[in-house]
Amino acid sequence: MVEPPALIVAGPTCSGKSALALALAERLGGTVINADSMQVYRELRVLTARPTPAEEAAVPHRLFGVRPAAEAGSAAWWREAALAAMADCAGRLPILCGGTGLYFAALTEGLAEIPDPGQAARETARGLLAELGPVALHARLAEADPATAARLRPNDGQRVARAYEVWLGTGTPLSAWQARPGERAPWCFAAILLDPPRDALRAAIAGRFAAMLKAGALEEVRELLALGLDPALPAMRAHGVPELSAYLRGKITLEEAARRAELVTGQYAKRQTTWYRHHDLAPADRTQTIHSRFADLEQFSERERGDLLNFIERVG
Fold first, then answer.
1. Which of 105, 160, 261, 302 is the most exposed place for a label (fewest CB within 10 A)?
2. How many domains does the structure of the chain reveal?
3. The pLDDT of residue 232 is above 90
4. Which one, of 208, 217, 218, lies nearest residue 266 by Cα?
């Protein structure tokens, strides 16, 4: 059976993925499917740089702003939702656009099935997180599951607690479950990876955060804080949320909040770039890398545009 084609558009934050995906969707008759773990939250349109209403109206968009901030997303949830959205494209090309490498890996390589650790283990892990804090719980996780602890940041409380509850409830480390083979999606993937110079990314990150402030990022965070959500939820840790929260609480100046937000976003972009260099989004002969930020197809020479479109025609 011939697998239907799907296109991945990936790259670090601020590399121009959304603009490229939109341009390709308009030209090729595609549907843009979100593959960014933060753009799924409906309360975070500005700070996650979600497509504008006009962009969403230009071509079909799926999985943007579909989940409340009070509900944590996951790779397993996204994979199921993405496969459903792809199957529902009705003859259009699925264009999966985002920067969350784990989501792409879950889709193209599959996810191992992990048993439910049970409510008791979940409550114990959450209780320890509240009592000890994420760093101390991370130290405990390092003793039980050193492989998982090594890849998690010590202050990432939600993921640390999740890994700890899996070990508590199943008696098997999360890393061991994840090492088991999963089932890849029945699609023929091709990928375009944006890999711009670091200096270009840094400048874009600074400019975008300033634009976000003008577009209402402060009000967006103020409304998010009014919901009284658990600070460990992913949406509460989106880039810019902790920093602007600190400003709104009078702990730092707005200038310092912007500086910190730009710093953590830049660090994240560096981690994303490293991830892409060590993971394949698609087979090598079905992957094209563009070493620049994307703003518009017109930025390319006629030959470069032709190469890009010929690549898509060849793999599609």
1. 302
2. 2
3. no
4. 208
pLDDT in tens, 147-177: 999 988 898 888 899 899 999 899 999 888 8
Residue percentage of the chain with pLDDT more than 70: 99
> In the block, which residue shows the tokens 């341009």?
23
Task: Give the domain range for residue 161.
Answer: 119-178
CATH number of the domain enclosing 151: 1.10.20.140
Average pLDDT score over residue span 23-50: 96
Across-strand partners of 93? 30
Instruction: Please tell me whether residues 106 and 131 are part of one structural domain.
Output: no
**pLDDT confidence of 288, banded at 50, 70, 90?**
very high
Do 211 and 270 belong together in one domain?
A: yes
The pLDDT value recorded for residue 316 is: 66
* φ/ψ of residue 85, rounded to 5: -65, -40
> In terms of domains, do 201 and 61 share one?
yes
The pTM of the full predicted model, rounded to 2 decimals, is 0.85
CB 160 within 8 A of CB 137: yes
| pLDDT score recorded for residue 175 | 87
Looking at the fold, whether 145 and 264 belong to one and the same domain comes out as no
**Angle formed by the axes of helices 302-315 and 17-28, to 10°?**
70
Tell me which residue of 163, 159, 131 sits closest to 144, measured CA to CA: 163
